[in-house]
UniProtKB/TrEMBL annotation:
GO molecular function terms attached to this record: sulfotransferase activity
Protein name in UniProt: WSCD1 protein
Xref: SUPFAM superfamilies: P-loop containing nucleoside triphosphate hydrolases
InterPro entries for the chain: P-loop_NTPase, Sialate-O-sulfotransferase, Sulfotransferase_dom, WSC_carb-bd
Keywords from the named record: Repeat
PANTHER family: SIALATE:O-SULFOTRANSFERASE 1, WSCD FAMILY MEMBER CG9164
Family membership noted in the UniProt record: Belongs to the WSCD family.
Chain segments annotated as transmembrane: none
Residue intervals of the WSC domain: 142-234, 245-343
C-alpha cells in the first residue's frame, strides 16, 4: 500500500512540473506572436502614411521637397525626401493649395512634434541657467545675514520683486537678482523662492525654523515653510549698476496735480536722474518722474498712463537735465530697476473652470509670452498640454498641474487635429508671421527659450529640412482650429505686441474675467517677462532661400483666405510679400 502511494505521489509531482513548463512555454509563445504582429502593423501603418498622407507641394515648388518626419527622429540630417513621382501621388490641380492637403499633414507631424517637444526639455534647463552660474561665480560676497523671519503669503513685506528657480536657487542668485534691481534686502523661502524689498519683515522667527536647503546649493539654507532667510544686499558697485538699469521712458505732459497722482516726492536742488531714481527705488516705485528740481515716484495709472501723445518730443529731446521740464507743463519719466508688483500675485482657480479654454499656437508664435500676460492680467496660472521643466522652474506653476484639471485659466497647446481640438470648449488662437515663428522655434530647438542657434546650425541641412516640414504645420495648425474649433478668438502676435492693452483686455474678456485698468498698466510695465531673448542678437542675414519664401508665401495666402472665409480678420500685411 505504501509503495503504491509513493508511486502516485511521484507521478503527481512530475505532472505538476510538466503543467508548469507547458504553461510557461505557452505564455512565451503568445508574447512573441503579439510582438511580431505589432511590428507588422506599425510597419504597414508607416508605409501607408508616407504613401498616402504626404503633403503635396504647391505648384512650382517640386524642387524644394518635404522632409519625411520619420527621418527627423534622428538629429542628424537625412537626405531622404518625399517629393517625387515614386514617393507620392500627384494631387488634383484644384486641391493643390486648398485646406485638405494641409490638414492631412497633421497626423504625420503630430508624432514628430511630440518627440521634439520633449526631446530638449532636459537640455534647455542647463542652457537657461548658464547666466545664473556666471552670477554665482562672479559674486564677491554673500551679503550680511539678518535672520529668519515669518512670511505671510497674503501680505508680504518683501514684495518688491519675486523670482522662482525650483532647481537652481542659491543665496548668491537671489542676492544678485535683488541687487540688480536696487533692493536692500533679499529673502529666500521654500528652498527655491526669492523675494526682494527695502523693509524688513515685522516678525522674527527662531533660527531653526529656516531649515529648507537651497535647491541649487547643498549645505545652504533658503528659508523654510512660511519662513524667510533674509540677507542685507551688499553691492560693491551699486551706484554704477543702478544707473545702468534706469531706462528713459520719454517726455510727457505732466498731470494737473502731481501730488495726488504720485504717492512720494522729493524736492532737491541740482536734482539729477540718479538722485531721483535712487530715491524712488528705495520707496519701491517703478517710475521716477522729474520736473525741474522736483522728483515724484509712482506707478502708471489712469491719470498718468504714459500713453498720451500730448508732449512734443522736441520739448525734451537732448534736455534730459530737466531744463524743458522746468516750465511745469512737461516732465521726464524714467523706469527704475524696481519691479511693478501690482500684478505679480498668481494662484490656481479655487473652483474648477466650467469652460475648458485652450491657448493654441504654432511653436515659436509667442505662446509663453501670451501666458505671461494672461497670468499677470488675471492673477491665475495657465496650464499646459506638455510639461516643460524650464518653464516650471521659472514660475509657471501650472506646468506641473494636469492639463485637464481645470484649475488653470487656460491651457497651452500646439496640438491640432479633430480629436485634440474638440476636447476644448473654446480657444484663443494665436497666430504669428511664419517667417518669424520658424526662426524662433529653430532657436528654441537648438538653444532653449532664451538662446540663439549658431551659424553652424543655420547652415546645416537641419534648417531646410526644418522649414520644409514645419512650414506646412504652421498652415495646417490654423486650418484645423478654424475647422474644428467650437468658439475662437483669433489674436495676431503682431497686433498684441503693438496694441498690448486693448488686445489683452479682449483676451481677458474672452476668458470671462474682469480686470482693472491699473492692473493692465502693471502688465504693460512688466510686458517682457522672463523669457524674452536678450543679450547678443544673432547676425543680420537672410536664412530663407527664394524657394523657401515661395513655399511659405503660398501657405500664407491659403491661411489668409481661410480666415476671411470664417469672417475673421485676415493676416497682417507684413506677412507678405517676402
Amino acid at each position: 500500500m505504501a509503495k503504491a502511494f509513493f508511486r502516485l505521489q511521484k507521478f503527481l509531482r512530475r505532472t505538476q512540473f510538466l503543467l508548469f513548463f507547458l504553461t510557461a512555454a505557452y505564455l512565451m509563445a503568445g508574447s512573441l506572436l503579439l510582438l511580431q504582429r505589432t511590428r507588422l502593423v506599425i510597419q504597414q501603418g508607416s508605409r501607408g502614411t508616407s504613401a498616402n498622407q504626404a503633403l503635396p507641394v504647391p505648384e512650382g515648388m517640386a524642387g524644394v521637397g518635404i522632409a519625411d518626419p520619420r527621418t527627423l527622429q534622428n538629429p542628424r540630417p537625412s537626405p531622404r525626401l518625399l517629393v517625387g513621382t515614386d514617393a507620392m501621388q500627384e494631387p488634383a490641380p484644384d486641391q493643390r493649395h486648398g485646406p485638405r492637403w494641409l490638414v492631412s499633414r497633421n497626423s504625420e507631424l503630430r508624432q514628430l512634434r511630440r518627440r521634439w517637444f520633449h526631446r530638449f526639455i532636459s537640455d534647455q534647463e542647463p542652457m537657461q541657467t548658464a547666466g545664473f552660474k556666471a552670477m554665482k561665480h562672479t559674486a564677491e560676497h554673500q551679503g550680511t545675514y539678518v535672520g529668519c523671519f515669518s512670511d505671510d503669503s497674503r501680505e508680504r513685506t518683501l514684495k518688491g520683486a519675486v523670482f522662482y528657480d525650483l532647481r537652481k536657487m542659491t543665496v548668491s542668485h537671489c542676492q544678485e537678482a535683488c541687487a540688480e534691481r536696487a533692493y536692500t534686502y533679499a529673502g529666500l523661502a521654500y528652498g527655491a523662492e526669492c523675494y526682494c524689498g527695502n523693509t524688513l519683515p515685522a516678525t522674527a522667527s527662531k533660527p531653526e525654523e529656516c531649515n529648507s536647503e537651497c535647491k541649487g546649493e547643498k549645505g545652504s539654507v533658503c528659508g523654510g515653510v512660511n519662513r524667510l532667510s533674509v540677507y542685507r544686499v551688499e553691492e560693491p558697485r551699486a551706484g554704477a549698476r543702478r544707473r545702468r538699469n534706469v531706462i528713459y521712458r520719454g517726455c510727457f505732459r505732466a498731470p494737473e496735480n502731481l501730488t495726488d497722482t504720485f504717492p512720494a516726492s522729493l524736492i532737491q536742488p541740482n536734482l539729477t536722474v540718479e538722485m531721483c531714481s535712487e530715491f524712488c527705488s528705495k520707496k519701491e516705485f517703478p517710475l521716477a518722474v522729474i520736473r525741474g528740481r522736483e522728483c515724484y515716484c509712482g506707478f502708471p495709472t489712469g491719470r498718468f498712463s504714459l500713453h498720451d501723445d500730448g508732449a512734443d518730443g522736441q520739448l525734451c529731446s537732448g534736455t534730459r537735465n530737466a531744463s524743458s521740464a522746468a516750465q511745469g507743463k512737461y516732465c521726464l519719466v524714467y523706469q527704475t530697476p524696481v519691479q511693478d508688483t501690482r500684478c505679480t500675485d498668481r494662484k490656481f482657480l479655487t473652483t474648477k473652470s466650467k469652460v475648458f479654454v485652450a491657448l493654441s499656437s504654432f511653436p515659436g508664435a509667442g505662446n509663453t509670452w501670451a501666458r505671461h500676460l494672461i497670468e499677470h492680467a488675471t492673477g491665475y496660472y495657465t496650464g499646459s498640454y506638455y510639461f516643460d521643466g524650464a518653464l516650471y522652474n521659472k514660475g509657471f506653476k501650472g506646468e506641473k498641474d494636469h492639463w485637464r484639471s481645470r484649475r488653470t485659466i487656460c491651457v497651452k497647446t500646439h496640438e491640432s487635429g479633430k480629436t485634440e481640438i474638440e476636447m476644448f470648449d473654446s480657444a484663443i488662437l494665436l497666430i504669428r508671421n511664419p517667417f518669424k515663428s520658424l526662426m524662433a522655434e529653430f532657436n528654441r530647438k537648438y538653444a532653449g527659450h532664451l538662446g540663439y542657434a549658431t551659424d553652424r546650425n543655420w547652415k546645416s541641412k537641419e534648417w531646410p529640412d526644418f522649414v520644409n516640414s514645419y512650414a506646412s504645420w504652421w498652415a495646417s495648425h490654423v486650418l484645423d482650429w478654424l475647422r474644428y474649433g467650437k468658439h475662437l478668438l483669433v489674436v495676431h502676435y503682431e497686433d498684441l505686441k503693438q496694441n498690448l492693452i486693448p488686445k489683452l483686455r479682449e483676451m481677458v474678456e474672452f476668458l470671462n474675467m474682469t480686470v482693472t485698468e491699473d492692473r493692465l498698466l502693471c502688465v504693460e510695465n512688466n510686458r517682457d517677462g522672463n523669457f524674452k531673448r536678450s543679450g547678443a542678437k544673432q547676425k543680420d542675414f537672410e536664412p530663407f532661400t527664394q524657394e523657401m519664401k515661395d513655399l511659405i508665401n503660398r501657405y500664407i495666402l491659403t491661411v489668409d483666405e481661410a480666415l476671411r472665409g470664417r469672417n475673421f480678420t485676415g493676416l497682417p500685411r507684413e506677412y507678405v510679400p517676402r
